[in-house]
Specification:
Elements: H1 3-11, H2 15-25, H3 29-39, H4 45-62, H5 66-82
């Protein structure tokens, strides 16, 4: 594991979660990673990240992109597993 992956693991982030945030916010993955790390230090920040991923799932489903919706759902499950303090919500 390289230093960057080790740092990401510290914050409970994985590449698919970063991609989902980048997609939701229409920013680069580097910017999304910075935003995620910031939010994880704020009250209810992890819930905001959860909501971003859920919004992306809804958008993918509405557009008929069920494969992408499944990828995002998997990212959501991973995120919730890494952040048990965040209550789940229905996508």
């Amino acid at each position: 594991m390289d230093a960057e992956q080790d740092q990401d693991a510290k914050y409970g982030l994985d590449p698919e979660e970063i991609k989902a945030i980048a997609e939701h916010e229409h920013v680069s993955e580097d910017t999304a990673e910075t935003l995620a790390k910031y939010l994880l230090h704020k009250p209810h920040g992890a819930e905001r990240i959860r909501d971003m991923i859920v919004d992306d799932i809804r958008t993918a489903r509405l557009s008929g992109d069920y494969r992408h919706a499944k990828e995002l759902f998997d990212a959501l499950e991973d995120f919730l597993a890494d952040h048990p303090e965040v209550p789940p919500t229905k996508p």
